[in-house]
Amino acid sequence: MEEFCGKSGAMKKNGTMLFSMGCRDYHYINMNKSWQDAQSYCREHHSDLATISNMRDNNRTLESKTNSAEKYVWIGLNYTQGAWRWSDSSNASFNNWKNGEPNRNNNCVEMLSDGRWNDGGCHHKRHFICNGEEHRDYHYINEKMSWQDAQSYCRNNYSDLATISNMTDNKKAQKKHNSTEKYVWIGLNNNNTQGAWRWSEDSSDASFYNWNKGEPNGNRDCVEMRPDGCWKDEKCTTKLPFICNDFPMILICENTTWEEAVEYCRENHHDLISAHNVSMRERVQDVAENATTPYVWIGLHYTCVLDFWFWIDNEDFIEDSWDPDNDKRDFCGTSGAMKKNGTTLFSRSNTEKLNFICSLCET
């Protein structure tokens, strides 16, 4: 019987298939419904019809229907109040229309088998794709830096400066704002963007805003968050604490071999966690403290044939990460692990059965 030490998702449930290949999950629903009925179903069973913010999201939704022969599937875009909007009411700043579309004969949007979009009659009955949980977390950095330096710090030690896609994200980030400082940097800016506000993470246009009254005032290019969660624009050279996108991960309290852990994470989440640097290993330590084994598997593996260690997400391995007490004589047949109460690395036999930590997103 599986035992989870944290929140988890399932691969198959109620006729749906969950694909979590990045920080936003999508559920492919193999039921035929009109656009409105599909919207109602997604809102009742998941969160909403699929929102697609960039090409990465588009590829994920397309991947979610890989095993389907359906030519058309509903996504959450529709024409309402004189504009194309997503079902969650956010503006559409990204599109992937088929040539000649939209022809404005119809108000609902379907995805074709090649990932391009077409406007279709809302009454047609199609399979559809729902938004799942968006796995996003944040980490507060209590060091004052310019926006650009904060961006570099987050990219080197975490993922990127904070991306905030909706009010749920905003409240999460606001809770991390635990400083006596009045303002903290987030990842929104309009540096060299022809006036468009874009996120640092993927240069996508912002479709959600939480501006303070009177903001933005139009003469500053970077965005800070107030303690109440509202935003204002600020000079990018101002030195402030900041919030980074963190690495969502989950501890699985099931005793498995290293290969079984990799298989489980890839089937149910994203992958076994790769903890390349001290910041990531500190996060792993926080999650691992509830483990039921003294060590936990991570995404580090040794190949005897090529005689080197590698992270399974293809990042380079730095040899000085080993714990001083680790036996370094013979690594064949071993993989990487961490103590539940430490941040250094150990080699353990591949057949040893340990708890393990899965990443929920690409790191």
Could you explain how this protein is built, in words?
- It contains 6 helices and 22 strands.
- The strands form 4 sheets. Strands 1, 2, 3, 4, 5, 6, 7, 8 and 9 form a 9-stranded mixed sheet that branches. Strands 16, 17, 18, 19, 20, 21 and 22 form a 7-stranded mixed sheet that branches.
- It is an alpha+beta fold.
- The two termini are 29 Å apart.
- This is C-type mannose receptor 2.
- Pfam families: Lectin_C.
- Keywords: Disulfide bond, Receptor.
Which helices and strands appear, and what pairs or packs with what?
Layout: E1 12-13, E2 16-19, E3 24-33, H1 35-45, E4 48-49, H2 55-64, E5 73-80, E6 83-86, E7 108-111, E8 117-120, E9 126-134, E10 138-145, H3 147-157, H4 167-176, E11 184-189, E12 198-199, E13 222-225, E14 231-234, E15 240-245, E16 249-256, H5 258-268, E17 271-272, H6 278-288, E18 295-303, E19 308-311, E20 334-339, E21 345-349, E22 354-359
Parallel strand pairs: 5-9, 18-22
Antiparallel strand pairs: 1-2, 2-3, 3-9, 4-9, 5-6, 5-7, 7-8, 10-15, 11-12, 11-13, 13-14, 16-22, 17-22, 18-19, 18-20, 20-21
Strand content: 25-35%
Kindly state the percentage of residues in helix: 10-25%
Strand count: 22
The 3D shape can be described as globular
- Biggest sheet statistics: 9 strands, mixed
End-to-end CA span: 29 Å
Measured on Cα atoms, how large is the radius of gyration?
22 Å
Q: Looking at the chains present, what oligomeric state does this protein adopt?
A: single chain
Please state the structural category.
Answer: alpha+beta
The number of helical runs is: 6
Order of helices and strands: EEEHEHEEEEEEHHEEEEEEHEHEEEEE
